[in-house]
Amino acid sequence: FKNDLEKVPKSESDIEAKSKYKNDCYLFFTIKPEDREKLPIHYLEDLSTKYLFTYLKGEETKGLLSPADSIKVTTKFVHSYSGPKPTNVQQQFICEIQAKIVGNFDNLLYVCTELQKELSNLQREIGSISNDAVLKIIQMEKLPEIKSEQLKCRERCPWCHRVCDKVHGSDPGSEKDKHECRGGHQLCGMGGVYHKTTRKAIVQFCTDLQENRQINYKDKGMTWNEFVRSHPSWNFKVENSENEALNKAKFWSIWNKAGPQICRHYNIHYTTDHVLDKFNFAFVTDCTGSMYPYIENTKNTINALVRKFSSDDIGSCLFSFVGYRDHNGPSGANAKGSWLDVVNASPLQHAQKTIQFIDTITADGGGDGPEAVVDGLNYAVNNLAWDPSSKKFLIHILDAPPHGSEFSSGFDDYPKGCPCGISYASVLTRMKEQDITYIVITCQNSDQALQKMITIYKNHYGNFNTVSLSNAKQLEFKTLEVICKDI
User: Fold this and answer.
1) pLDDT tens profile 133-151
2) Where are the alpha helices (DSSP H) in 330-411?
3) What is the distance between the alpha carbons of residues 91 and 336, in angstroms, rounded to a whole number?
4) Cβ atoms of 72 and 31 closer than 8 Å
5) Nearest 5°: CA angle at 444, between 442 and 450?
């Protein structure tokens, strides 16, 4: 009925005039145009499906319509079939088919054709085979056949590699008909997805990934949000949270039993750890005079991260502290008249060594408003020995912007930017290339120009998490909170 719609009767009186369609059945809707827009999406399609299957099962079609009180819809169901009602076996078969399809017009013609064939065959065979045997044959052979034909889409989720299970219309993958894993996404490892360095299976679901989560796709670092935008033909969300929970439990059960065999098939390492094995944390901190309480609380934050992420079943943590102050300039001398080192940093090492290093740091210096922000970031990104197989975090704690008139209109010894010639754009690009998760923590009484810096930095790096503190004691909790959400 799709190719010759102009020949289909448009009213009951038209049916007699077009006798070719005399033995078909029709559902006529009467609805005002303004009310049509108020109907829920797919309402008429779903209603048509209900009428179809009620009719096929030989049941009464009256009373199916339950429109909203404010919408007036009337229906007329017309058919000329006067043969026997379906047998119990046929009814069960019809109910099975009904449970497998989604109510949309593109799917109905195929289902009707298959039903007609199978019901005709049943009429001939029902006398020679028992009802139970026929039903078993249908359930074991015909239903999978029909379902397989119906689910023609063979597109795989680009992240977890599960096959799309949506029954599409005429334009699969379009904005209005995106690919989906309606039954829920599988654990990525089931599709052979693994960490490039360790070759360990990735045991996460697509729905677990946060927008700002850094991922590596085809050897290219990006955020999950960027990955989603680069695959516009897919809807990665699962709408029913209850079904999603059941689906996750199902896949975890399968993974626990069959995961080792799946991993052998893909030549990857089996694991049940859904968190990465290793973590690198670099605290890049403004160490000028106002920052003393934040430097002290960084030690508490490191201890909290060790307690949270360094247990035997999860992995190891390495930490670095990169402190920066300001460049030698007209306003940059300290009380003794000497010039402060711009950057003072420890390597990535175990927690206690990093804490011992922080104990040697003093909060001093400063002069003009901006500080050597870019120098601190550059050292952390390009000089620390980041472990490529780890989950990498750069936690930037500051209360003043970098040098440069684009960040602040206030007093600045270096309005043209970093006097060493380091480009913040190149540092941010390198940070992203190394798959380092950037977190900016602004302190109490922070310079308003920091918000301008954050906006400019996001234009180069992409979106990243920002945290605003009202006092230094919040540093431990807030840092742990944002890192846990990302992981």
Assistant:
1) 444 544 444 544 544 444 4
2) 351-358, 373-383
3) 94
4) yes
5) 40
